[in-house]
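ERR on first pass: missing label on line 2. Operator R.T. fixed the label and resubmitted. Corrected input:
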Amino acid sequence: MNLSVQYLWLIPALPLLAAGIGALTPRSGKAIAAGATIGAMGLAFVLSCGALVTALKDPAAHLVANFTWFELGHSAVRLGWLLDPLTALMCVMVTFVGLLIFIFSTGYMHEDANFTRFFCFLSLFAAAMLGILIANSLLLLFISWELVGLASYLLIGFWFHKPAAAAAAKKAFITTRIGDLGFLLGMLWLSDATGSLLFYDAGKGVLETSALTALVTQTTVGGLAVSTAIGLLLFCGAAGKSGQFPLHVWLPDAMEGPTPVSALIHAATMVAAGVFLIARVYPLMSADQAIATAPLHALSVVAAIGAITALLGAVIAVAQNDIKRILAFSTVSQLGYMMLALGVGSWVAAIFHLLTHAFFKALLFLAAGSVIHAAHHEQDIRQLGGLKGPLKVTFATFAIGMMALAGVPFVFSGFWSKEAILHAAHGWNVSHLPFYAGLVAVVLTAFYMTRLVAEAFFGQARSPASEHAHESPAVMTVPLVLLAICAVLLGFLGTPYWPWLQHTLDPKFHSEPGGGGLMVTSIVLVALGIGSGWAVYGRRLRAKASAPDPIEAKVPDLFAALAARLGFDELYAATVGRLNTFLADAADVFDRYIWDGAVRLLAGLGQFTGNVTRETDENLVNGGFDATSEQLKSTAKTYSRAQTGDTHGYLMLVALGFVLLVLAVMLGGTR
Amino acid sequence: MSLSPLQLCLLFSSALFCVGLIGALSRSNTILVLLGIELMLNAANINFIAFWRFGPAPAAGTGVVFVLFSIAVAAAEAAVGLALVIAVYRHQKNIRLQEANRLKG
Amino acid sequence: MSTLPLLSLVVFTPFAGAAGLGLLRGASPAASRALALIFSLSTLALSLVLLGGFDPARTAPQFVERHAWIAALNVNYSLGLDGLSLLLVLLTGIVTPVALLASAKAERDSRLFGALFLMLQGAALGVFLALDFFPWFLFWELSLVPAFFLIKLWGGQGATRAAYQFVIYTIGGSAFMLAGFAALFVATGTMDFNTLAQLAADGSLAQKLAAFGGGNWTKVIFLGVLIGLAVKVPLWPFHTWLPPAYAEAPTGASMFLTGVMSKMGVYGFLRILWPIFPGPLHDASCWLLALALGGVVLGAWSAMRQTDLKRMVAYSSINHLSYCLLALFAVSYATGRAGPSSEAAAAALSGTLLQMFNHGLSAAALFACVGMLEARTGGKRGLHEFGGVRTAAPIFAGLCGVAMFSSLGLPGLNGFVGEFLIFRGVFGLNAWAAAIACLGLLATALFLLTFWQRVFHGPRAGATTGVFADVQPGEYLTLVPLVALMLVLGVAPHLLTRLINPLVTAWAGHLTLP
Amino acid sequence: MNAAFLATLSLELLPAQLRDMVTGWLPEPWRWLVNSILAIAVILASFGLLFAYLTLAERKILGRVQNRPGPNRTGYFGLLQPFADGVKALTKEDIVPRGADHLLHFLAPVALLAFSIMTFAVLPFGRNLVAVELDAGVLYFFAAGAATELAVFMAGWASHNKYSLLAAMRALAQLISYELPLLLSFVPVIMIAGSLSTQEIVHRQSGWMFGFVPQWHVLTPWGFAGFAIFMTAALAESNRSPFDLPEAESELIAGHLTEYSGFKYALFFMAEYFGMCALCGMAVTLFLGGWQAPLPFLEFIPSYVWFATKMLTLLLGFIWVRCTFPRLRIDQLTRFAWKFLVPLALINLGTTAFWSLTSGWTGGLQIARWLVAIALVVIPFQLIGRKLSAGLGPRTYRYA
Amino acid sequence: MTLAFLAIAFVTVAAAAVAMALRNLIHSALLLVFNWAGIAAFYLWAGAEFVAFSQLMVYVGAVSMVVLFAVLLTQRSPQSFREQPDSISRVIGALLVGGAVLGVLFGAVLSSRLAPSAATATPTISVKELGSLLMGPHAAALLIVGVILTVTLIGAVIIASTDHAESGKDES
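pass 2 clean. output:
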């Protein structure tokens, strides 16, 4: 039964529907929510297999179904679905692992009050993750990317009444958001440069040759090719989401969420999204390889960051005491490996490692989950111990997961995928540093995993919780077993001798011969790691929980630094945090005093002029007026005295006047 | 000195005018002052008739007409003047002109 | 075009309602509230009718009503509706009833409150529909009066000062605008926006003004009108009146203020400033871009510093509105420059319109939520006075969460579409501006999440310890429509873009500098 | 005295011819002087005689009316009574009160008599028997008349007696009050006659209507009203009968004449009668057609005879009025003048104006003209009359 | 002819002069009336009969009455007619001024060389001519004089009348 690309949207739609149902069901409807979620996930898994069948028919083809989201100016914003082997494989992995984790979490979260809301968020997360996988448009990918961020926020902060969880959720969201800014800018630049955001659109798509050549030819600031710049910006998003070196701080804190969440998000899917993104836009990322003269190749940056993160993750993991923190840091380092693989040019190896890692890391987390479940939420390995006895199945599956992760040769998938990466790193012509980092990381991984197993499972129970530990119910242990089987079998899909997986992903893939020497070195390194681990922790098992860690005894300050995650959180708090508060204060002060001040000044000015005009009005104008009227009155008085009131006098004057007049006329001689 | 009849009349009227004026000025009794003024007015009328009779344009009777009007107005004036005198008297109990000087500055 | 004067009806039904309420002496509070609600809903109903009759393809104003008002001064009462006005009328139609509902319980003299609110709504509709400066300015100033009384009479402690500052600051600004338009009128003899726009387009406006007052006269007038509008939007340096005004205003009033009143400013930019002064706007655009960026970045950051929730939401609305301006200024900045595909300009402009609409919804919803918090705790709205509200009122937390994430610009909700388009447009027109603006996005996320975390997450503490009721039936009516709209528009933005796209393309089309 | 002269001798021209006989031979300026002296002498003589016998006639008629014989002791039927009075007046002692103003006391009767006599100058006794032919004759007549008040005042004032002064004031009030209706009543005649000269007025009244009705003014509605007002005013002017308040016995003794005795009193008496004769003469000239004959066939009787007969009838009318009418009180008198006579006279002016304007109407209109004129006279008379007596009603006396 | 004129003139001026000089008011009033009669005679001499008669009627008839009444009404008791003599200085002043005016007028009249009129025919004016003149060009003046007369006389009556309200007040 094959699923054509038009119906591809069903895969994410089903979990979304389940999430909707979950949101509407009241708290009491636990069965409904769980049923809907798991059912939807199962169906999605079946559909994914169908999609895989169609994709495998023609691995090279990119089946596309595009549609218009809304008109914009003369053209329109168009989204679409893409089906190719990468999508299909990832969908199958995500749906399968998701299904197992959902089943596990029904048991794990059984007695939690907000059970329904938990499942609603889980299926929301699954839908978003699947959205990323099937997206044929960078915009749709970005939308699902953000929704995944939201889901992770909701899930990490699920027990929001715990302030630590709430803080962790916020931190996760903010850090990924910082990465997403880069992603957004990259996307904007891409859409501006090429006019569309669709990957494959019958020739006009972004990842198709015409757009790519255009991008490569344009250069931007610092001589970088536009495609390199966009690639780097997109890589920021990926780094944020996959917890790469500068933005990895949120991953360990994300362990505050329930273990299935950690398993689902921080092992299998979300963190893998970053790698998937780079893999998806690999043509764009590798476009600038052709230009030798380019000052910087996007992929070399990816490789560098990958190497650093791998090394960093592994080193810190050694000094962690919380079982989930150790696994978190191991995820960080494994993701570093995948980025390394992408950087050195072999995205196929990265995807192969991604798939294998998804399974055994999910296994480890779930096992840890069942340990915690069993040990009544005790997570500190120093408190645990001697669980080998009571938790037989958990111990067995945990051991398988540990060995796959460490890369125990031949039997476990981890070995083959890590082998492929190292092989690719070895073949990288730019520089060998990542290769050496990879090797060191292999040793460290082996070391801290054996420490973990030794501390947690061997020796005697060191706390009341670990004493009464009892095996988890079947609903939890069955997924563990299934995962363990996959962790083993999956490796054989991509061995150098029968690189089926690589071929399906990249038909042009050809495995170079002579990997044998490399394989031997890695086997030796793994053995070295496990041996030293056992040597330090296996033989002299810890007596009491409070006993100092052997390494801590030897190198106390280094161990303390590593335990404190190399102080990145404090560093960020110190720099970004303070800058942030400083800016906030500055803005507020600016607002409160500068602008408000200016307004108050203006008002004051208005009042001042008001007073001035009143003053001048009061004494200048009125005063002058009074003075003149006074003057007028006095002159009037003098003249009024002439009015004597004596009529005779008046008549006398008239007569005299008459006389003078006549004299004047006669003498005047006007005749 | 040959005086034309006109000049004679003018002399007569100016004589009458001056008598009226002197009377008006010298007497303190308001009624006599009014009578003096009345005299002056009549002197003017005499001039009118003199100029009508001996003046250049005897045909036009304006001189006579004006005398009539002047008589009428003078009569009215005399009536009002004397009414005022009576009012003043009622108020002031004597009609000496000097004492009716309330309207001074 | 039906003979019925639809637009006048739209503008004057609220006024009629206000008058009716004024007359009804004996109406009980409930009756007057219901009456006020019915009248404000009338706008929504009429706008839907308009929507039905609206032909998106035609960019010229439709349903035009034009009557000579003061023939001597060539002033006529002309109303018209194009994509932009329709959008804002719809927004007013949605936000005002919701605002009235949100402020249902708390009002003392609900009859006067209803009347003032309807007057405010009528004035806002008048501004969005007037095509001639005279009626437009009349409604522009008229809207201040009810706003002043609403803030002053029903506001918090500092209400009087805030109301005064708000009104005087705005009137101060609009005084410059009035002077500018007076000069324009004297030079050109008309106050009709379309004719002025045509004059500006064919360049004769500049000559007329030059002839009228000398070379840089156009700049002076442009500056006057700019200040008038900038104060209203508010453009960043002129915004200090907004936080106290929105914070002190009662819930309903602040919802309306942030939902509709601030849109008047942006509407003014789009309707008046940009078409009539493309040249000067282009010349000044680099400065204005800086100011808009200031608004975006510093607006968001100062929001972080606020402890009073309402002031925080107020600053967030400054931030969001600055995005709209950012887009407009970017478009005008790029007008002269060769090369920018009109695609980017179209994206920016439609982004502005959508952002206006979406911010209207999300800001109003946020204010409603803060109002509800306030109502439950007797006026408390400090950031640290709550804790674990989500445990106490999960549904309320859910709805408020959606509103918050929508204003955060989370994809899938309406906020994202607007912001994405703005960024898509601005990036195309001026890449660095977009880059800096992204910081704003981060800051918005930061302070909103801090708000969410402090208030909703964590154990039940502070004011939420006592009885803390979940969403009441009345409050459902307030939040659910908004949230539903956010979800619907987030998924299917073409409902809105269908209306405004032809208009925006037309605008983006004639981008050549005259 | 040749036949031609006798042939031309006719009664009509007799006086003129007699005069020419006497002064025919004098040179021009002298003849004028002698003529005027002659005229003065004739007028004085005739009117002096008339005065004498008038007093007698008055006392005889008064007696007969009061059913007593009247003076019949002096000569047959008392004909010599006037000369007896004259002698009495001359022989009585002329007393001048102490402190009185001798000059004025003497001057008063002289002035009064002088002004009365001056009025005779313009009366047209016959066809061309008028002493002075003035074209403003009527005006001269009333100007001279107006001076009589001055004399009355002098009399009242000069006798240094409170009561005579008061009486003079009352007499003056009466004289002034009635001067107005007197003047107003003759104005219509001037309007119709178109001239102020008395001869012209009489000539205007010549001619006959319907062959036998003379064109006298009195026979026209306005004329009759004017004549009635004129006669009443004349009665008052000469202090006669109903208006003889000043020297009424029951009032202030002899009014302003109390301090006069002997010849001065006689002079006053004479002046009064002269005034009465002059007024009757003027009434005849103005209203009764002067010396015009009443009927055409009586034309042959000389004009001065007509004049004399008409005047005598009026004088007898005066005397007759004196016998019948009671005396009016001073306030009734003045109210009668101001509130009745003056308004009527003014309205009469109106009717005359109507009359002169409508003179052109003929036939039917002629009758309408008469009717309207009569109405204009009668209706105001009724209205004002009724209004005047409205306030009177039964009189209430207050005894001191 | 001038003999008559001289006689009239001399009598009139003498009457006026004596009137002004006399202490006894009534006598001076009466002399003044005589003066007016003299002026009327002058008019007759000059040939304007109508004016003479109206002068007689108006002045001798009416104004004299008003003057005499005024004199009577303003004397408190009979003996007060003997007025105190005016102050000498005032009389001298009056004489001086009067003399000056007289001198000036006489000088003016004597020095003026008005051409003696042809005196063809002694101009006479009949009442008819006067009437037509009054009613013709001077009709307006006539009406106005009529109005003035009525108004002033009513005014005079009001001023002089002692209506009860006012007099009561005064008498106290």
